[in-house]
Amino acid sequence: MIEDDSNSCSILLIDDEPFAQQIIEHGLKTCVKHVLRYESSPARAADLARELNVTVVLVDLRMPDLDGFEVTRRLRANPDTEHIPVIMLSSEDDPEVKAQAFAAGANDYMVKWPDPRELVARVQYHSDACVARRERDAAFASLRVSQQQLAASESALHQAQKMEAIGQLTGGVAHDFNNVLQIIGGNLQLLKLVGGLNEAGRARVEMALAGVERGAKLSSHLLAFARRQPLQAVVLNPGHLLRDMDDMMRRVLGPNARIVTDIDPSLWSTVADPNQLNNVLLNLAINARDAMGGNGTLLIRASNAGGDAPGPGAMLPPGVSPGEYVVIEVADTGKGMPPDVLQRAFEPFFTTKPVGQGTGLGLSMAYGFVKQSGGEIVLSSEVGRGTSVRIFLPRSETEAAQPEAHVDVPLFGGLETILVVEDEEDVRSSTCAILSALGYQVLEACDAAGAIALVESGRQIDLVFTDVIMPGPVSSLQLGEAVREHLPNAQILYTSGYAEGVLAHEGKVSASVHLLQKPYHPDALSARIRHLLRPGRNAGAAANAQCAANSAGATAA
């Protein structure tokens, strides 16, 4: 068993006569726990007291180089030794000398050679006082650290609660906003389809549709910040995406800015929504351009971090959970941010740009996307030295597939029968009119219960186009189950402006679930419908339907 030496006396004796060590050691023989160190040079007293962490110093008064008064003064002048008890030893039993000793800072005064019982009692008393003081100081230091940590935790909790409250508010607003945009956009597109507009009228419609598109992007950014944007996540290699964005980045920054790209050739894969990641990086580039005033250098770096990743940048910063990550850094040489701006940089609508030059949603959208993707985002900035944004996305063990080439699909319809399920009458009316104009046979229902009645009636239905969030006792998931049971060859296409917790599991939509986000363009609606109704697809509909059922069931659970 190892004895606890925390309360032992650690004694330093300063005396120019070596025999003094033997006398003091003999006197302390009844002091069970003690360690005595002897030093003949008084000049080394302060250094030894600090190095040996002594709890009592015994110092002789009369020595040839430095006397006991000066040794005591030096101990008191050193912050590391100022509180160590000093007992002065002297053959002079003179009150004036004793007064000088106490004035110099001594804690006690003993006439040579003291009785062993008195020596042990005084040494033990002063040593215990020194140990108690050190324990008290350590407790206060620990308390200060704990208070600082508590204050930091409370600040972080307050910030997280504030961001969550803002997120809930923006998510709800975005849902209603998307329905309004769908009504406006759908009717404007219907005007274009039915024709009869003169050039001036067509120009006005196009202008209004451009406004709808801007509103849709704003709503998308709000949902991304609120982490309620359903993500179509796939395994991807960010290096491919960054290379594909190179030309766009150069156009965004302008001819006077310099772009430096550093992509690790052994970059890992990650799981993310490529379109949303593209938007995040583009917004970061725009912020960098504005911060640099069109000049300066933009660094885009992609590397691996955590785990066994090599290189100096592989260490994870504080606040990032242990693991393996793909890191994308966008750093500029702009004007940077002061601490008060840096603290609020992720808040939606917070911007230091002049009115009309920024929405304040770029960084908040990036924050929401990264958090929803299971990653971390680290922002660092210094006034006059630029800003760095690092995105940490969890590594995927699956290798990324080569991206498919995008093919534009023209607007066209068909002769199939489509059931439109939408509780918003104006949205349902415009959507049904657009599908009818494209040649489809259109059935409509205002809720899931009415849709199930049509499904169970035996009517021929090739595709069900249904909103996700609807009032009433029957949910869109239950409608999907009824379609799979009664119409196994029919396809299901969901639409929503806010599908949190229904189709999305942890913010991500399964690949077997087909979702068209509001507000949708007729071109996108037409392309998705033709994709789902293409010849040969129904041969595998049952298997796909079962996958969708399993995914929906897991999400609902």
From TrEMBL:
Coiled-coil segments = none
Question: By its UniProt entry, which Gene3D superfamilies does this protein fall under?
Answer: 1.10.287.130, 3.40.50.2300, Histidine kinase-like ATPase, C-terminal domain (3.30.565.10)
Q: Which UniProt keywords apply?
A: ATP-binding, Kinase, Nucleotide-binding, Phosphoprotein, Transferase, Two-component regulatory system
Superkingdom in the source lineage: Bacteria
Question: What reaction(s) does this enzyme catalyze?
Answer: ATP + protein L-histidine = ADP + protein N-phospho-L-histidine
MF terms from GO for this chain are:
ATP binding; phosphorelay sensor kinase activity
Where is the PTM 4-aspartylphosphate found along the chain?
A: 60, 467
Q: What is its EC number?
A: 2.7.13.3
Q: Which residues form the Histidine kinase domain?
A: 172-397
Pfam families for the chain: HATPase_c, Response_reg
Tell me which SMART domains the record gives: HATPase_c (SM00387), HisKA (SM00388), REC (SM00448)
InterPro entries to which the protein is assigned, alphabetical: CheY-like_superfamily (IPR011006), HATPase_C_sf (IPR036890), HATPase_dom (IPR003594), His_kinase_dom (IPR005467), HisK_dim/P_dom (IPR003661), HisK_dim/P_sf (IPR036097), Sig_transdc_His_kin-like_C (IPR004358), Sig_transdc_resp-reg_receiver (IPR001789)
RNA-binding keyword on record: no
Where is the Response regulatory domain positioned along the sequence? 10-127, 417-533
User: Which PANTHER family does UniProt cross-reference here?
Assistant: C4-DICARBOXYLATE TRANSPORT SENSOR PROTEIN DCTB, SENSOR HISTIDINE KINASE
Q: What is this protein called?
A: histidine kinase
Species of origin: Massilia litorea
The upper taxonomy is: Bacteria, Pseudomonadati, Pseudomonadota, Betaproteobacteria, Burkholderiales
